[in-house]
């Protein structure tokens, strides 16, 4: 039996096994609502958390370059600060997604 045949056989067994779990129960709608509410909470947490993590990584790299550039020419500090603040929009979008999902 080749590796391909084993994968196909395992897929068929899992498909048949899960079809028995697909039957309706009396409280299926309430359980589905609870599942969706939980998944929305996980999605909202991921939206905010990953947005904040991305912002932190971006600002760490931008901040170190900003300090080096300002050390060479202090007159550019104001315009370079704008580049440091641009990644903050990721957190704002994360908050927006959090409020939309919650």
The number of helical elements comes to 4
Note poorly predicted spans: none
Major sheet details: none
The helix/strand class is mainly alpha
Q: What would you call the shape?
A: elongated
Q: Tell me how many strands there are.
A: 0
β-sheet strand percentage: under 5%
CA radius of gyration: 25 Å
How do the helices and strands follow one another from N- to C-terminus? Answer: HHHH
Please state the average pLDDT score. 80
Proportion of residues in helical segments: over 70%
N-to-C CA distance: 50 Å
Q: What is the fold's blueprint, element by element?
A:
Layout: H1 3-19, H2 28-72, H3 77-85, H4 88-101
Helix pairs in contact: 2-3, 2-4
Can you walk through the features of this model?
This protein is mainly α. 83% of the residues lie in helices and 0% in strands. The chain contains four helices and no strands. The protein has helices spanning 3-19, 28-72, 77-85, 88-101. Helix 2 (28-72) packs antiparallel against helix 4 (88-101). The radius of gyration is 25 Å and the shape is elongated. The protein starts with a helix and ends with a helix.
Key structural traits:
102 residues, mainly alpha, 4 helices, 83% helix
Quick recap of the structure?
The chain is mainly alpha-helical.
